[in-house]
Design a protein that fits this description.
The complex is a heterodimer of chains A (474) and B (165). By secondary structure, chain A is α+β, with helices and mostly antiparallel strands. Chain A has 13 helices and 15 strands. The chains are: A alpha+beta (474), B alpha/beta (165).
Amino acid sequence: MAESLSTLSTHEALTRLVARAHAMGREPEEIPEGETLLREGQSNDALFILLEGTARMVKRGADGGLIPVDLLGPGSILGILSFWTGRPTFSDSVAVNRLRILRLDQRDFERGVADDPEFARLTQQLLVANLSDRYRRVVGLNLKVAGLTRDLEAERNALREAVSDLKQTRNKLVHQEKLATMGQLLAGIAHEINNPSSALMKNVEMLIQEMPDVFEPGSRKRYLLEEGLSAHYATPSETRQRMAEIQEKHPEISRAQCRRLARLPSATLARLSQDLGGTRAEELASDLRVFEIGSALHSIQVAEERITRLVKSLKSYSRQDDGEVRSVRIEECIRDTLTVLNHRLKQYDLELDLPSNLPEVNCRPGEINQILTNLLTNACEATPPGKKISISAGAGEGMLWIQVWDEGHGIPEALLDKIFEPNTTTKSGGGDYGLGLGLAISRDIAVKHQGSLTAGNRVEGGAWFRVSLPLEAR
Amino acid sequence: MSEKIHILCVEDEPDVLDVIVRELSVLEDVFPVESAASSDEAREVLADIEAEGGSVGVIFCDHIMPGENGVEFLVSLRKTEQYRDTRKVLLTGQAGLDATVKAVNEAGLAHYIAKPWDADELVLVAREQLSRYVAARKLNPLPYLKHLVMDLVGDTLRDSLKSDR
């Protein structure tokens, strides 16, 4: 036999093998569809050479489910591993359709290989073909697995990003919701203060108007009351100086009395000078109380005016934005925010540069207040007390801009690029505003207004932030 | 003549300062009350008092003020030898925990008064702190006795009476 066996087609090789088996007294068998040829885990002592039909190899998964492993066609040999190693069968082999197989047991095989060279060559060719086929499939599978792993990795990264995006969005929403709640609270408090404050104002006005008439026109008491009503505060150093002057002239007057006299305007003091000492001093001391009542009323009025301004600022600062765009004077937003943040800003050298002719801008004022609050609280966090924080505004090229700069530590070089990304913060403490969302939200707001928020470091030190808003917002 | 012990009030809001000084002026026949609108001015007043040979028994200081804030001011005073014994009281409307902790730990804060305060309480705090000051300096309490809290100066008083004998 001159021809090389390896050139035989599978079909030819199978036909010849069946002939050789026939010579040994072995006939092909028919296996009906669905029958299990080999069962996973059982021992096996035969080779099944598939002549016709398709068999499926199935493995049991850890959870008991069946996992299809491979499909085998004519020329495939089932049970190779268990036949040669004697180990339990690796997987189930099930007939997908009707099969024709040649079953060779240990004895058949050994006899055939020993006695029949063609049988030996044919089985050898089939075995090598099977093994190389399986090897090729393993390599293919590995490649496929690698591809799938890559895809999975990419998908996992995408998911991770999506989850982190969602988290940021949720944090922003929570933050916004907090601010909205705070706004409602502020508005509520402002409203509640407003009523008693109005009553206070009306009553003080009445007292200021009516009190002088309680005293005789032209009397000293009336004069002192009216002086008290219009008295201004002397600075502590002025007070000290005046007290020293009085005490020098009248060493007999007690220090407490000196302090009371030092509060009088100098013209008033001069008019009373002849009564300062001696017998009339006691009467003067009693009349001084009227001056003090007057100045106390004046003080109440001044304080009340402050409360009224504060309440007004609180109300407009916390104005609940109904999403309505309004035409707004930006100076008012700035002043409202400054009022609300006064307790923090008063420690700084605050510079305010607002031109009087700024055009009105269409915006949602509550949101602009929020940007300004963020920029100013950031400036406070970054700047040592006593240093300068500056707010300026201007208009040009269809835009209105507001700039906040400070003399603080500036933005660290490494954060410059991502200062507007959520969860970026230079603050070490975990304060109320320590979420690192302030600037991210501020930029969102600016962008929603078709404007922008930009930042950088000043050459002189400290950071600058600039909000630009279009004058004609859509 | 005995040493003049002053009370110093530091507050940037003139109307609030005015009220503090007025309420404390009931002690003024013994303890002169001085006032300042900022920590810088307070330092000038301290220098004046020192020049006149007086001392400061207690400082009432606002927390948030333009320029140097109250806590920083009190901390710096504590580092100055002649004001170590001076009793330091922080008056505040809004200090957070951090500021309070710093004030207690670093400024040796003696007392902490939240705004708005009660006039009687303010005067009592002043009297207590002045008593502690007199006791800490081991001064003869007699010239100041009118406004001191006896429980706090009893030992000092006994000692000074003994040494007089």
